[in-house]
Write a structure and sequence with these properties.
Blueprint (H helix, E strand, L loop, with lengths): L3 E3 L12 E3 L6 E6 L7 H20 L8 E6 L5 H14 L4 E4 L3 H14 L3 E3 L12 E3 L8 H12 L3 E7 L2 H16 L7 E6 L7 H10 L6 E6 L5 H10 L9 E3 L4 H4 L11 E4 L8 H14 L8 H20 L4 H8 L3 E3 L5 E4 L5 E3 L2 E5 L5 E6 L4 E2 L13 E4 L6 E5 L4 E2 L5
Parallel strand pairs: 3-4, 3-5, 5-6, 6-7, 8-9, 8-10, 10-11, 11-12
Antiparallel strand pairs: 1-2, 12-16, 13-14, 14-15, 15-18, 16-17, 19-20, 20-21
Helix pairs in contact: 1-10, 2-3, 10-11
Amino acid sequence: MKLKKLIIAGSIAATALMTTATYATDNIKVGVLHSLSGTMAISETTLKDTVLMMIEEQNSQGGLLGKKLEAVVVDPASNWPLFAEKGRELLANEKVDVIFGSWTSVSRKSVLPVLEELNGLMFYPVQYEGEESSKNVFYTGAAPNQQDIPAVNYLMDDMDTERWVLLGTDYVYPRTTNKILEAYLLENGVKAEDIMVNYTPFGHSDWQNIVADVKKFGSTGKKTAVISTVNGDANIPFYKELGNQGVLAEDIPVIAFSVGEEELSGFDTKPLVGHLAAWNYFQSVESDENEAFIASWKKYIGDDNRVTNDPMEATYIGFKMWVKAVEKAGTTDVNAVEQAMIGVAVPNLTGGTAVMNANHHLSKPVFIGEIQEDGQFEVVWSTPDTVIGDAWSDFLPSSKNLVSDWTAPIKCGNFDVKTAKCSGQDF
């Protein structure tokens, strides 16, 4: 039998080295497509470890369909074309039954054609810009209406914000998200001159001038806030520069869509107290499910100081749903599992229930949290109930008439309710 190399580079000492193992031919293979090196490793390595933890837990309960789950881990190394290459390796060579992976939308867009060509199934666990619905992807992170729009509403209604700074990393998620937000702001009476937009490359480290520009933009007497779609390790120098220049939350609050507990764990957060983040989960949310998850994570990782975060919960939910769908379908066949997934419900970690909808998006609660001195978030606002993720934005002319529904008779990710036609294009 061919030996397979399982690369598990990360935080656990026992899995830090490359190991070689021989597995039974009838194992159910789970692909893990996360960057373990490069600018996104700060975020993605944790999700690799989360999937491995879930696999270990499932195997301890007898596996799935009477078989053991086998992790196949690859490292696309924050190199976006490599996500397509490594995705093809997982599907064509390793014959994995499912993939958990990607963080950035550019990495998801890279592997998406491969998933559709080879009929793979991937769970994408991070907030994204919407404007997509593929038969081969389940989106367990937040769509814009589950994060971005509620955050803007909070800043408008609760903090009387009048001027808006949109800071983002230069790729598809921030640009599309900000396009949606600009349209939403203008629709709500914000003047164009009260919106500032700035993009920086991945891994950007020199924030001095940008933060100075933000301070100047916010010095007109109008309440100003920053919406940050900065991603990866660029967040560390960005937040440090906020502290260096004395940008306090009470003066110019920053609300982030890509900063969670993991990103804040590496430096002193005292100067950042009061700045905000919008997610569907925080470690600080109290529930029996969350308490058990945190305990399991710390035991698995062997570090009581390691934190949990939103994409971990999205990974957890996706994995649990996939297991239920496979059991329901009685097979790992992608077509059968895809249909079985629709309507599946599992407990989330905040005390409610996550449901997979016909558009391959979850129903999720929305939380806004303030950064505390210990790097955790205090929830200051939440939706009263779960919100159904919307694949297509209501605020863009190109998509406001589109819906996604992967059930019969529509079975389309891009259905125009005006023409009653499916374009045949899923993204």
